[in-house]
Design a protein that fits this description.
- Helices cover about 50% and strands about 10% of the residues.
- Strand 2 (about 115-120), helix 6 and strand 3 (about 145-150) form a beta-alpha-beta unit.
- With about 240 residues, the chain is an alpha/beta fold.
- A 6-stranded parallel sheet has the order 3-2-1-4-5-6, with helices on both faces.
- It has helices at about 15-25, 35-55, 60-70, 80-95, 105-110, 125-135, 150, 160-170, 185-190, 220-240, and strands at about 1-5, 115-120, 145-150, 175-180, 195-200, 215-220.
Length: about 240
């Protein structure tokens, strides 16, 4: 059994560093809930990543554009200088992130049962590698088994990203489970690649389709831990003579 994880908002609370940074710069300046702005920032990030990939935005302009999209209609004017300061503080907060409290137990369980572990995440290599280091994932996952879209040239939900991981690890899609929080890039991407998909929907987002494409949906870390333990046990029993 192979288990591949997303990083942002799957292994750690992505909203925490954003909210701390928002509160430092904009507390009391808008009536919009930081949670709503966090969601907007994630949407903006995906939009900007696509535009950058298409060559419509230069890398040095990407974060500024993301900030503009996040804070439009809030009454807050975002200058490039303010965007740069926000970015520096946000990176500082990201360097001090911690795994969700339920993740170490899951990874320990997998390692003890000889489950192959890997990571596939969207983003720039330097940024995502910094997060991975801050989270201490090298305790469970070899650096060679961590794949970042900005380094491999393919971005979820493009099935080429999943195929790249398969080739590098020498694994088969039918034996591989992907765990992620984002429905479109994680669940749709994994399923179109022929992988199994576990949706960690801890934000309780609505299903974007009439039929949920994920093999399973869980809404808490406890549910995720129980499900993965069950899958490991099922695989072990099936392998017994």
């Amino acid at each position: 059994m192979n288990l591949v994880f997303d990083v942002d908002d799957t292994l750690y609370d992505l909203m925490k560093p954003f909210k701390k940074t928002h509160d430092k710069f904009f507390a009391g300046q808008t009536e919009i809930d930081p949670k709503e702005l966090f969601v907007k920032s994630r949407i903006a990030s995906n939009i900007v990543l696509d535009l950058e990939k298409e060559g419509k935005i230069l890398p040095e302009d990407a974060y500024f554009r993301r900030m503009q999209l996040t804070y439009e209609h809030t009454g807050i004017s975002v200058s490039r200088e303010l965007s740069d300061r926000f970015d520096r503080e946000y990176r500082y907060q990201q360097a001090h992130i911690e795994l969700f409290d339920f993740i170490p137990g899951i990874l320990d369980d997998c390692a003890g049962q000889q489950v192959r572990l890997a990571v596939l995440t969207n983003g720039r290599g330097s940024v995502q590698r910094q997060k991975i280091h801050a989270l201490g994932l090298e305790r469970w996952i070899d650096e060679a088994d961590i794949f970042v879209s900005g380094e491999i040239g393919y971005q979820k939900p493009d099935r080429k990203a999943f195929r790249f991981v398969e080739r590098q690890l020498g694994i088969h899609p039918e034996d591989t489970w992907y765990v992620g929080d984002t429905y479109q890039s994680d669940m749709i991407g994994a399923k179109e690649a022929g992988w199994h998909a576990l949706w960690l929907n801890h934000r309780e987002n609505p299903e974007p389709l009439s039929v949920n494409a994920a093999d399973a949906e869980v809404r808490s870390g406890e549910q995720l831990a129980k499900l993965i333990h069950h899958l490991i046990r099922r695989e072990r029993v099936a392998a017994e003579p």
